[in-house]
Write a structure and sequence with these properties.
The complex is a heterotetramer, with 2 copies of chain A (about 90 residues) and 2 copies of chain B (about 140 residues).
Chain A (H helix, E strand, L loop, with lengths): L6 E6 L2 H7 L3 E6 L3 H21 L2 E4 L2 E3 L14 E5 L6
Parallel strand pairs in A: 1-5
Antiparallel strand pairs in A: 1-2, 3-4, 3-5
Chain B lengths: L6 E6 L6 H8 L6 E8 L3 E2 L2 E2 L2 E6 L1 H18 L5 E6 L2 E2 L4 E9 L2 H18 L2 E7 L2 E4 L5
Helix pairs in contact in B: 2-3
Classes of the chains: A alpha+beta (about 90), B alpha+beta (about 140).
Pfam families (chains A, D): ThiS
GO cellular component, one term (chains A, D): molybdopterin adenylyltransferase complex
Pathway (chains A, D): Cofactor biosynthesis; molybdopterin biosynthesis
Chain lengths: ~90, ~140, ~140, ~90
C-alpha cells in the first residue's frame, strides 16, 4: 500500500469488457481489495460492466482469482489486474 | 528423457504454420505416435452464416496458462514433444485458429494429451473469439 | 449432410502423402475440427535397436476392413470426411506408416473417431509389421 | 462342391505363415470344411504351421471366420481362404 492507504493498479479490459470501456487499460487507486475495485468499476461504467463482471474472473498478475476470494484479495501497488470474461479460444 | 522434451508455445497474428511444420517440430525417431488437432473457423454457427472471425487474447497470460496446461499434461501422460499454436487476429473462414501437436512413444498418450490440451485451452486460456454475422457481431463465451 | 461425406482409403508402397495433404482432403468450411494421427516407425523396441521395418498386407481385405471400420465410426459419431492411409512396404525409421485424418463440426467427434479408427485398424486390419534388428527379424503380433 | 465331392480353394499365406510355406498362395482340394483344410495344411507343413494356425484366424472371401465356427464353415469351389496371423498394422 501507498502512504495514502491506496494501491495504484493497472486494469486491463478484453473482449466484451473492452467494448464497454472503450479502452484497453487504465489505472485506478484502489483502497484495499478486488471487491473495492469492483465498486470503482461499476460506479464508473454502470450496470453494463457489472453484468460482465458477474460472469468474469479477475486475474491478478496473470493468476486467476476464484470468485469467492475476491473480497479477500488485497491489491498491491503496480498490480496488473485483468478482467477475464468467459473465454472462447480454440 | 524428460530433459530432451521440447515445448513450443506461440501466438501468431499471421496465418499459423502448416500442420506439416508443426508435426515435424514434435517428431522424433523415438516417438512412434504423433497426434494433432486443428481448429479451423467455420462458416456457420447455429444456422447463422459467419462472415469472419476475430481472436483477441491476453497474450502473456495466455502463454503462461498454455505452459501450465502442458506441464499438467506431462504429469499425466508419458509424452515427448508438445506444440500449441494459436492465432490472435482476424481469421478468414477455413483457416486454422489453433494447432496442437503431441508426440509420444505409444499412441494413447499422444491422443489423450491432445484432447486434454484443447479442452483446457478452451476452458482456461484467456483468448476470445468474436463472430461476425450479416446482422452484427458477438463475443463468444459471454453470450452463448 | 451424409451424402457429401467423403472417405479416402488407400494403401501405398511409396512414402505416404504429407499430413497437410491429408488434412486438406478432409477439410471443409463447415467442419471446425480436424484431428489426425500419424504412426511413424521407431528406432527401438524394448531397448533393442530397430534397423528397419517392413509392412505387408492382404490388400483387398485390408481396404474392405478399413471401409467397415469407417462405417462403424460414422454410426458412432457425427463426423464429416475421413482419411486412412497405410503404407505397405519397407518404411525407413522416422517415416509414417499410417495417417488418419477426420473432420467434424465439433472437436470431440473427430478426436474420438480417430482414436477408434487407429484402435480398430490395429486390432482387425490384415496388415503385418516385420522389425529388423541387428540379430534378426520378427513379425510383430505373432511373437509379442 | 465339385462332382468328386471336394472344393478347389485358393489359400493365401502372409507374414509368419508365408515364412513357413515359402510361397504366397496355392490351391487345394478340400473335402468339406475349414477344419479339413487345417488337416491338409498341417500334414503338408507340419508342427511349425500348426502353431501359427492355432493363433491365426481364417478369412474366407475376405471375411473373418470365428475360431469356433471353423469346423462348421463349408468351403465352396473358388473360395479364397487366407490365413491371418495376429495383425500388427498401424
Amino acid at each position: 500500500m501507498q502512504e495514502n492507504g491506496t494501491s495504484k493498479v493497472t486494469v486491463l479490459y478484453f473482449a466484451a469488457a473492452r467494448d464497454i470501456t472503450g479502452i484497453a487499460s487504465e489505472t485506478f487507486s484502489v483502497p484495499h481489495s478486488l471487491g473495492d475495485l469492483t465498486s470503482i468499476l461499476t460506479t464508473k461504467y454502470g450496470e453494463e460492466l457489472r453484468k460482465i463482471l458477474d460472469h468474469s474472473l479477475y486475474a491478478v498478475n496473470m493468476d486467476y482469482v476464484e470468485k469467492d476470494l475476491e473480497t479477500n484479495t488485497v491489491l498491491k501497488d503496480r498490480d496488473e489486474v485483468a478482467i477475464i470474461p468467459p473465454v472462447s479460444g480454440g | 528423457m524428460s530433459t530432451a522434451n521440447k515445448t513450443f508455445v506461440q501466438l501468431f497474428t499471421n496465418p499459423l504454420p502448416s500442420l506439416d511444420e508443426a508435426s515435424q517440430l514434435v517428431a522424433s525417431d523415438s516417438a512412434g505416435a504423433i497426434s494433432t488437432f486443428s481448429g479451423t473457423t467455420r462458416d456457420h454457427f447455429q444456422g447463422k452464416q459467419v462472415l469472419k472471425l476475430e481472436y483477441e487474447g491476453y497474450g502473456p497470460m495466455a502463454e503462461k496458462i498454455l505452459q501450465q496446461i502442458i506441464m499438467e499434461a506431462r504429469d499425466k501422460w508419458e509424452i515427448q514433444h508438445v506444440l500449441v499454436y494459436h492465432r490472435l487476429s482476424e481469421v478468414p473462414i477455413g483457416e486454422a485458429s489453433v494447432i496442437i501437436a503431441v508426440s509420444s512413444a505409444h499412441r494413447k498418450e499422444a491422443m489423450q494429451a491432445v484432447e486434454y490440451l484443447i479442452d483446457e485451452l478452451k476452458a482456461r486460456c484467456p483468448i476470445w473469439k468474436k463472430e461476425f454475422y450479416l446482422d452484427g457481431s458477438v463475443w463468444k463465451g459471454t453470450c452463448e
